[in-house]
Design goal:
Strand 1, helix 2 and strand 2 form a beta-alpha-beta unit. With 208 residues, the protein is of the alpha/beta class. The longest helix is centred in the N-terminal third of the chain and has 20 residues. It is 43% helix and 10% strand. Helix 1 crosses helix 2, helix 2 packs across helix 4 and helix 5 packs across helix 6. The chain is built from 8 helices and 4 strands; from the N terminus they run αβαβααβαααβα. The mean pLDDT is 91. It is globular and about 45 Å long. The chain has a 4-stranded parallel beta sheet with strand order 3-2-1-4, sandwiched between helices. The chain starts with 10 loop residues before the first helix and ends in a 6-residue tail after the last helix.
Length: 208
């Protein structure tokens, strides 16, 4: 079963996207206020497109800014957005990364139109943002719940933390209109799928 689609293979990817909508509904039912931003990690785009479609519809009057986060070696959606002609780009080559779930160099043709038309920003990043996200979620401030998140699931949090804390990213932060009044939703899509590697990243001081 593949969640990416091609001509003649669309039914199963559509069903998988419908399944992802459950995550959106559960988050929506828990949220007390409308988020200003939603950070979504993107591989072929199925999860991020499903979440984008869901939240743009349920918050139709005040839609949050959808921010897509991709692995730099496989940033097909990021590069497609830069083309400005509506078509998508395929990224090939070696993809050495800890974010195995995002190592996808071609957008699903079902997902790309949604992400093209409704996402507000596209970010291409390296592995160390995912590692930082895992550490932040795994060792939270007092009062915050600990979340065991895998590499692909934590990258949105890592990117968000960098945007808010790194003075070198102040221009990007301002362009995204992120500030102290922002309410940001991040979705973790995996736990510690490789417990040994999770330990190495969070407690082993491995550099990426």
């Amino acid at each position: 079963m593949q969640d990416t689609a091609w001509d003649g293979y669309e039914k199963i990817p559509c069903l998988i996207m419908k399944g992802y909508l459950t995550m959106g509904l559960e988050a929506y039912e828990e949220l007390q206020k409308v988020p200003t931003h939603i950070f979504l990690q993107a591989g072929v785009g199925s999860m991020s497109a499903a979440m984008t479609a869901f939240f743009v519809n349920v918050y139709r009057e005040h839609p949050p800014m959808i921010v897509l986060v991709e692995l730099a070696q496989a940033d097909c959606i990021f590069r497609s957005a830069k083309r400005k002609d509506g078509t998508f780009e395929v990224v090939a080559g070696r993809m050495d990364t800890i974010m195995a779930g995002l190592a996808c160099g071609e957008p699903s043709h079902l997902d790309w139109p949604i992400l093209r038309d409704y996402a507000g920003a596209y970010i291409s990043c390296s592995d160390h943002y995912a590692a930082d996200g895992m550490r932040i979620l795994g060792a939270p401030l007092p009062g915050d719940e600990r979340i065991i998140s895998g590499e692909s699931g934590a990258v949105g949090m890592g990117v968000l933390a960098a945007l808010m804390q790194d003075p070198n990213l102040s221009e990007q932060r301002e362009r995204l209109k992120l500030g102290e009044d922002s309410r940001v939703l991040c979705l973790s899509t995996e736990g510690a799928t490789d417990p040994d590697h999770y330990w190495d990243v969070v407690w082993g001081n491995v550099e990426f």
